[in-house]
Write a structure and sequence with these properties.
The protein is about 65% helix and about 0% strand. It is mainly alpha-helical. The relative contact order is 0.12.
């Protein structure tokens, strides 16, 4: 994972020196984990990157697993907030989905999310995995609510909004494999066509 990683959808806009010590550790540890992967980051690396002592990091987080879990949970909380912000406007649903899809692909351009999470999950406890799963489900729920609201208004046919929200994210993940083969907006439109014609028509 390169150092030129674009700012993920949920990465805080604040600079590190505006944060509390705990938030600074979370903020910068998230950058390290996203840039280098779970296995390649140690607590010493985090302390050095945050310009704090190793003891300070351990004061807030007993283990790397605890730090990673909290960093990812807070990242997903911020992503959920961004999803809500993008989808809560009065713009047509397809346009809102376009903006969300484009932001997602831009934010994860240099990341293999599946590989990134796979290497971490091997080391995490069942409770830590549960916390991350809850946060991930809440991200899907934000999209699900927006789709359900459009169904209730009669703008799209009624269907399983939960399944559709998961399917949309899955299409974005699949589309990332083509991101270097065509322009971004063209790719996003193709992804949206695959998704949109499935939800806007019963034919």
């Amino acid at each position: 994972m390169g150092n030129q990683l674009r700012r993920p959808l949920g990465r805080p806009k604040k600079v590190a020196n505006e944060l509390t010590t705990n938030d600074k550790i979370l903020f910068l540890a998230t950058e390290l984990f996203l840039d280098k992967g779970y296995t390649n980051v140690s607590m010493d690396d985090v302390a050095k990157y945050c310009n704090v002592t190793r003891a300070t990091v351990y004061y807030y987080y007993k283990t790397k697993n605890d730090l990673f879990t909290e960093a990812m949970v807070q990242l997903m909380v911020r992503i959920k907030q961004q999803i809500i912000r993008i989808l809560s406007t009065e713009e047509p649903l397809r346009f809102r989905l376009f903006k969300l899809a484009k932001a997602h692909i831009e934010a994860t351009v240099d990341m293999d999310i599946n590989a990134f999470m796979k290497e971490a999950k091997i080391a995490l406890s069942l409770e830590q995995l549960r916390l991350m799963e809850i946060s991930e489900n809440e991200m899907y729920f934000a999209l699900e609510q927006a789709l359900q609201a459009e169904m209730n208004k009669g703008n799209i046919p009624k269907s399983n909004a939960r399944l559709q929200s998961i399917s949309f994210v899955a299409l974005l993940t699949a589309g990332k494999k083509l991101e270097y083969e065509q322009d971004l907006e063209g790719l996003v439109n193709e992804i949206l066509d695959l998704f949109w014609y499935g939800i806007s028509s019963k034919e």
